[in-house]
Specification:
Length: 419
């Protein structure tokens, strides 16, 4: 590594998992002239842990899976334990009765389909590498079509439970590449078997906080308003606080807003206009007497039932002094705030809940993605052409799916590839 004065000055924009992880991997390679710029007054982005009556709760990301190798390495490097609360879950109908995940009559078919799944998914092993370049055409079609082509009628339902509940959209529309990127065979199995999941007693934001605080130059409330590539190389970055000049920049803020801060040719603007989101909400309710688990309501995963509560998460086992649950809902634009709440509170009561009180709510522009047509037309190949142009590089959830693990993996990949 070059001496400090000859090292490039690198600006990282956004201090969510992608930005903080990019800083971490750069530091590991010996880069020291790093500046992390965050628009909000705290780091974390979609890792949004809150405290209620002395315990942490998650309003954004909540779990890691046993396959989360990069996340676990980061936790080890930053002295964080994987000793968070367990995630025990059940399936319920809308009247609050416990149900089996799939109807008993479908079990023989499911067993048969599931047995053939590893061999089928083996064909798409490359999908587990960072990014979405070079996708096979069959993965660009909607997931339900891919399931139909591969005779997976019952398994599709099981995928849907663990896919849609996270706010990643409906399997009738979302391309198979996204679903299978998230639910590899191993990940699907972790959900079905309720194996050990990673949770963070001090909240997931603690990991990002520890990574960000190691960066020598961290700025909060410092939203980037403009990036101007300089003729002699490097980039001037203007923020609402001060201006910086960097040799290279890594941009991890939302890609659909890039053209607000960087002058882009029309064809790139057109590309970024293809990005879609799911409008997802997390409500935190204080409620007594709910069933003694976290739970899924599979009937409410149907796109027709948008706006209804899909799942709830009971984070801490002892409930005497801790009755806060987080509730996951796709936003229904046709309902008012009051109607959204009424629907949720009615479901909570049907599930047996009493003394229902809203503590807080958070809206998310979740899961940046493109549709089947854009994938087929080579969206990610075109997006990749932006990398390194004018000394600006890009990472974030759009590039490799919105989980902590995939964001960390992509940031590492970017640093290995270009730095
Ligand atoms: C409700 C919910 C539940 C989830 N559950 C899980 C889960 O259980 N497990 C899991 O692995 N993942 C989960 N995820 C996904 C995961 O949280 C995200 O994919 C990941 O945190 C995204 O990290 P990121 O850094 O790419 O983006 P972000 O977290 O969005 O970070 C981008 C950062 O850039 C900042 N920024 C934006 N504009 C500017 C600007 N102009 N200048 C400077 N800074 C700017 C933002 O303030 C933000 O801090 C969940 C997400 C949500 C919303």
């Amino acid at each position: 590594m070059q001496t400090k004065e000859h090292q490039p000055a690198i600006g990282i924009i956004g201090s969510g998992m992608s930005g903080a992880a990019a800083a971490h991997y750069l530091r590991k390679k010996g880069y020291t002239r790093l500046t992390l710029l965050e628009k909000e007054d705290s780091v974390g982005g979609k890792c949004h842990s809150i405290t209620y009556r002395g315990r942490t709760y998650e309003m954004g990301a909540l779990i890691g899976l046993p396959t989360s190798r990069y996340t676990m390495e980061l936790m080890k490097d930053y002295g964080l334990e994987d000793k968070g609360p367990l995630l025990e879950r059940g399936f319920f109908d809308r009247e609050g009765r416990k149900i089996s995940q799939i109807p008993v009559t479908h079990v023989p078919e499911f067993v048969k389909e599931f047995k053939d799944l590893p061999a089928l998914l083996e064909r798409y092993r490359k999908l587990q590498e960072p990014g979405f370049l070079g996708l096979p055409p069959d993965l660009c079609q909607p997931f339900d079509q891919w399931c139909a082509d591969n005779g997976l009628s019952v398994t599709q339902e099981v995928f849907r439970h663990y896919y849609s509940t996270f706010g990643f959209g409906s399997v009738e529309q979302i391309p198979a590449a996204y679903v299978l990127k998230f639910l590899s065979y191993e990940n699907l199995l972790s959900f079905i078997e309720i194996t050990h999941m990673i949770t963070w007693p001090s909240g997931v934001r603690e990991l990002i906080r520890r990574m960000a605080e190691r960066v020598e130059d961290l700025h909060l409330t410092c939203g980037v308003t403009r990036m101007v590539p300089l003729p002699e190389g490097g980039v001037r970055v203007e923020t609402d606080q001060e201006h910086f000049v960097f040799d290279r920049v890594i941009y991890t803020a939302p890609m659909h807003r890039l053209s607000e801060v960087l002058v882009l040719p029309e064809e790139d603007q057109e590309l970024l206009r293809l990005i879609r989101h799911e409008h997802f909400r997390v409500y935190a309710y204080s409620v007594k007497n709910l069933p003694p688990h976290s739970g899924y309501l599979p009937e409410n995963l149907d796109p027709e039932r948008k706006g209804e509560m899909m799942a709830w998460y009971f984070r801490w086992k002892s409930r005497e002094d801790n009755d806060l649950v987080t509730i996951y809902v796709m936003e229904d634009e046709s309902r008012s705030e009051a109607e959204m709440r009424e629907g949720i509170e009615e479901t909570l009561r049907r599930l047996g809940g009493t003394e229902v009180r809203l503590f807080m709510m958070k809206r998310w522009q979740h899961f940046p993605h493109v549709d089947a047509e854009a994938l087929q037309a080579g969206f990610y190949e075109r997006l990749d052409r932006l990398q390194g142009r004018d000394d600006i590089y890009y990472a974030g959830e759009l590039f490799n799916f919105p989980t902590l693990e995939k964001c960390a993996a992509y940031s590492k990949h970017l640093v290995d590839r270009f730095f």
